[in-house]
Automatic annotation (TrEMBL):
The chain crosses the membrane at residues 7-35, 41-60, 236-256, 268-288, 300-322, 357-373, 445-467, 479-499. Gene3D superfamilies: Ribonuclease Z/Hydroxyacylglutathione hydrolase-like (3.60.15.10). It comes from Aquibacillus salsiterrae. CDD domains: ComA-like_MBL-fold. This is DNA internalization-related competence protein ComEC/Rec2. InterPro entries: ComA-like_MBL, ComEC_N, Competence_ComEC/Rec2, Competence_DNA_uptake, DUF4131, Metallo-B-lactamas, RibonucZ/Hydroxyglut_hydro.
Amino acid sequence: MKGTWHLLAFSALLAVAVKTWHLIVVVIVFVWLWHLMKQSRLTPAQVIVICTGIIFFYWFTGFQTPKNEQVQANSGEIIGLTGNIVSEVRVKSYGLEFVLKGDDQNDYLVSYFSKGDVNADVLNQLQTGASCNLKGKVEIPESSSNPGQFNYQNYLRNKGIQYLFQVQVETNSSVNCTGSSFLQQVYNVRQFVLSKANDNLSSFTAGWVKALVLGDNEGIDPGTIELFQRFGLSHLLAISGLHVGLLVGGLYYVFVKFNIVTKEKAQTLILLIVALYPLIGGGSPSVWRASLMTMFTIVLVKIRVPLQVTDIVSLTFLLLYLIDPPNLYQLGFQFSFLVSFALLLSQKLWNNTRPMYQILLVSFISSLSILPIQVYNFYYFNPVSLLVNLIIVPYFSFYVMPFMLLLLLLSLTFPDLVSFLDVVFRLSHETVLQILELMDKFLFFPWVIGKFPLAFFIPYYLLFIMMMVSIGENKKKKAFLLGSCLTMLLVTISLKPYVSPQGTITMLDVGQGDSFIIELPYRKGVIMIDAAGSLDGNFEPSNKRFEQVIKPFLYSRGIARIDQVILTHPDLDHVGSFPYLLDDFNIEKLIISDLYELPEDLQNKMQNKIEIVRVSDKDKISIGTSVFNVLHPGNSNDLFGTNETSLVVFTKIGGLRWLFTGDIDEGVESLLLKKYPNLKADVLKVAHHGSKTSTSEAWIDQLTPKYAWVSVGANNSYGHPNPDVIRRLRDNRVVLLRTDKLGAIQYNFSGNKGTLYRYSP
């Protein structure tokens, strides 16, 4: 039955869709199948194949879902863990990392931290396939506690990993492993090649060789990796069809051109090399796809069984899925196969065109084929990436990749010859990266769309397919119309907040700090109150909190512009992310008190870019129809500490009265009670993260809040919120909502009515 492999692959995709999108997808799929059968485009037998496939893959995926109730009770305790190492033992900057399948059938990501070189005895014991008895702490991976935040727990679960396990390195008996498997010999080859690259090449060149040939990105600067991600170039850093194609083509040319072996033996040798290459090349989904496709092609040629390339892609997809179902949930797997199918099905469009137009068309098709998934996960699309891909992809295809293969080959065979070539590559590639950085500085205009709605996936791909068909049939007007509809679909998603009567107030879970985002209905204003920062391991300011929490949240809400940022006082846990906000977002106004001292470097950075508005008590901040009343501080000389000079802001939004208090103490609370004897609040932002120095009994008695919002870090060293503060709030029947227990807190409102939500960690 022609096309059966396509149908089975399609069934696997639909099975996951059914598990994800449930009834709506089931109805659409079966109505569509019925329509195709009535139009004689599918036979009843093919429909049966699809339906059977959906049921089988749905069951298979569910059957493979691991259970983890058994280990949860031991989370954080020192325990013994027995099982077998089922992955390569990778050397990281902090020590070692590998996956161990426990005797309880759960998979653990094991970390062995070492301040210096890892003990040789430990290295000799930790071998792939070894049977191990380890001692250490088991942990459940962190899930996301904020909308838009990366969910590490789901990421590991999609790799089939349920738990983290940290070996207790202080104890000599923490590692007791014996044995190994054949795979360890393959990984030994990988480690040998990696060491040769390190020994014979400069660190810069070695980093690129290891990344592009051996699938190890550890040697590439994190800033460069982020740069490639921003321009949609991450696929160039993952081993894929391009890399495998160059490897196979080069080997075949050498074997046959120099009469080393016959064509038939060359095919057999290449088959064996390609079978091992995914293990040597890091084992990413893209390298497995490319290698398996090559193996299928060679085998089918040798046994003279004709199959279309789309059949081979489908067979590869099914094999990888059946071997490891969680593959299907990995972005690399999804991107790799979507782009492959899109390019194969549109081959007639770009196959016979001029080289430059072909590159542009391939880049265009590749980008549009994965755009919904990209926006669904990263919330933005950079239109300029199409232009950048047009320049960078040929550069990598015809220069960087062949150069990397040549340098690696020479470093293994004639290491004395690589020095000059190393310098040539370093100079040329550093220049290209500098140009890319300049393009990032002047040409990075992200279209922040927000989360791509699942309901829009089907119309998007229907329009995309129809547009490509029209281009293939040279129906330019129809193609332009469909392309315009595709663009309007994206514009509609972007404009949704501007036509929505719903507003939102969010208290982000930023650990021990404050960050509140207020989104007014119809996007009439976005106000941010404080921007919590963080420190790195050396106690220096870090962008970690901004990159992991604040920026993803804003992007997920489709926010690229902030109308007003209110900074209550200059402590790092309230303002540390503001400098990073300046770099990535358009900010209209900065609101600070008259007593706030701006650092000189920050003033210079904001010069002529942002309007700085200084306020004091009794001033009003207006945006849209909302008014924020400044209650504190005045110009008093009695206030010396930064906490005492915190801006206190009162507003009415969504039918509730809100009081944002910064880090004020009981003394300021008493001052405010005297100054505003009729002050009431429905929602109180508990001052100073629930410190014992604030939230007095008199303060609660007068305000009579219904809800108390506490932004506080889990297990913080300050003991916040203080037990006495919690007791006082509960005695007054105030509902306590704290980020360390509930994650981000949101109030969604329309008019004067709203609902509170928790984003549970």
